[in-house]
Amino acid sequence: MADRYLRFTGTAPGRYLTRRLGLPQPAALTRWSPERPALDGGLLHLTAGRSALGLAPVLARTGMGPAGSGRAAAVVLDATGVRDVEALAEVHAALHPVVRSVAPSGRVVVLGAPLDPADHHQAAAQQALEGFTRSLGKEIGRGRTVNLVRLTDAAAAESTLRFLLSPKSAYVSGQVIEVGAHQETAPPDGDRPLAGRTALVTGAARGIGEAVAETLARDGARVVVLDVPQAEQDARRVAERLGGTALLLDMTSADAGARIAEALPDGLDLLIHNAGITRDRRLVNMPSERWISVLEVNLASVLRTTDALLKDGTLKRGGRVVATASIAGLAGNAGQTNYGASKAGVVGLVRSLAPRALAEHGVTVNAVAPGFIETKMTAAVPLFIREAGRRMNSLAQGGLPADVAETTAWLAHPASGAVNGQVVRVCGQSLLGA
């Protein structure tokens, strides 16, 4: 369903009226398209504290040139050298003069260092950057985003910086992303980084799953569209359009993992857990079957199939697991104790499995946590609840399935091996739980 309020605020009368009434003023976001693959404008590189990161060559490879005297489309502040409260003044001094001039739908990326357990002054100063970036994200406006990346190796963070400094990250703001030192060779074809890889997307016959499958196929992957037998017509339609194959399977069946392995004798590179259901009702009115069905589809099936595909080697070394959590699992939501529990469980799965999966199988495990995304499901939500969901984030609008898909594609990228155990909210920086 179209966001009529967003369109209204883009008109002169809309801007005037909403300003006078103190109402939200969302800005139309610049998203990726073949005609607009990059941000319009240059990059401003700033430093706070003493840094030895060697960032300039990596930023040069993002394709963004220096901002020069014009408006910056993006600002990267290297604050990895901030080690005490006094050095935090340099963060203010660097960004205070320029933040107002960042272009609409622009990006601010702050780079921080991991917290040093042996130096509580450094840990305090670096943790302060989180409060700073989240707060700036809530005030910067005009479709601009602010994110914090904690890293030790600039080269390992290249795929993350490329994503955050592009239109693909339009609905990702207020996030803290930790990047390790693990590096992988960038694919030879930057436009089709997933060429030669096989991706399985569950729940891919419609909605967000369809958008994920479409984006991975755009990036070169051979896509297997998995959905329940009842969705056969839609699943085959999506698979045919993307040049992939359909796999009709109930993920809650005990042999789902074995059947996936049988269907993919050459193995699997990308396992995208998107299938999910809701059975909303307040706990006092929730029968056990509603609880069990949501936990079974959203969590138990994800655990079983991931375990099976890792154990039997179907998920190949260098592979990626990306699961779908939700901000409902992070902040909670009335009437969704079952759904919130299942999605919080996905977060627990990611944080526990990620280090072991990488060490034992060479596979990364991450999650995306969507907020209010414009789908047929949210279009059926009552008007006032739907409008609240759209406006209660720093960008004051709902996201699109493509926003979740682009984030998934970044986590699935061959050069994203240093991103592991992360739960990235795709929620426009929701005012709840973010």
From TrEMBL:
Its EC number is 1.1.1.100. Residues 197-371 form the Ketoreductase domain. SUPFAM superfamilies: NAD(P)-binding Rossmann-fold domains. GO terms for molecular function: 3-oxoacyl-[acyl-carrier-protein] reductase (NADPH) activity. InterPro entries: KR_dom, NAD(P)-bd_dom_sf, Sc_DH/Rdtase_CS, SDR_fam. Transmembrane segments: none annotated. Keywords: Oxidoreductase. Belongs to the short-chain dehydrogenases/reductases (SDR) family. This is 3-oxoacyl-ACP reductase. It comes from Streptomyces iakyrus.
